[in-house]
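pasting ABC transporter permease for the record, 410 residues
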Amino acid sequence: MNFMEILRTAVFALRGNWLRSALTSLGVIIGIAAVIVMVSVGQGTQAEIDKLVSGLGSNRLDISGGGGFGGGGARVAAGSRYSLNEGDAEAIRDQIPEVQYVAASLRGGTQIVYAESNWSTQWEGVQPDFFAINDWEIADGNGFEAHDYSGGKSVLLGETVRRELFGDEDAVGQTVRLGRVPFTVGGVLKAKGQGGFGQDQDDIVLVPLETARRRLMGAANVPPGGVRQIALGVTRAEDVDYVQGEVEALLRQRHRIQPGDEDDFSVRNIAEVVATRTQTTRLMSLLLGAVATISLVVGGIGIMNIMLVSVTERIREIGLRMAVGAGPSDIRRQFLAEAMLISLIGGVIGIALGVVGALLVGRFGSLPVALNGQVVALAAGFSIATGLFFGYYPARKASQLDPIEALRQQ
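structre below
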């Protein structure tokens, strides 16, 4: 039997029980559609998270005050007290040449008011290198001048704050109040959107560090020169681990921490955070793919089950074919062609439904979707593999029947 004869025979056999064949294909359809949707969502989510965490920077270190033990022997959380100061930042800048940028900062929350509008936001007192470390750009107006860092009353607004206070009105040059303190809007920051940890990066007001200490800290018990955090930008990403060790050693020396005692600061390596998040998204993508594959395996088992039933029902037909000259390979190819045809028909319909489903999820759902030709090719490959794998055993069983015993079947 040539290929066309085998195909024609397979089509004729499936048409004889078209409803059963359609229901069998349904398992493959659902499996293939699930593979496309799940893998597309997994790849889209991974790409989105990679994009978000890449903004954190792979050559950055964040040093937070606190940690160790406070009064009464209770452990103090990192960032909960002012154990860092501007002198620490200057020492790091002067003594560790691999560090390119250093910026100490203070932060807090307040109500910002303009005319009849107000908005609850976060402010951050910063030093000049803060903008390079965090990749902030000015969209409108001007950044801080050198004289602003000695106590000027200019502020920079994030896009969210600008929109909530001013709407379509020009913000630059206007006077706003942070708490009870008036400031002049010197510029508006370029929008950055959502951050790597889900926060709105544009809901921020930047203030020169010295201004924040004098005018916004209020009654907070901040020691002279105290800061909440120090951010570092390392010149080369491969030096980050080395710089982290040097920073820890320098701060322990400056803070007179004895060997074996707890640090009163913590150093966070952003590269490690990025690597952890990336690994997590990869695992999630694999999990989604595994769930979709299980659906496809269930569909393949349905094909095997129906083909075994078909062999049992058509034993006499198989005997007649063998009696008129059909060999075991002809019988095997015939039943394998039937299994492949069910799988391919289900695969084509499943691919169409999967592509439509992925597009609908991307358009109306909250999940990011990355649909590409590789995903469709993967689904098509799964469809072919399912037909071959689950159709081979029934086809082999049919080809091994004894013609004489088969002809005796009623």
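The first helix runs from residue 3 to 16.
DSSP finds twelve helices and twelve strands in the chain.
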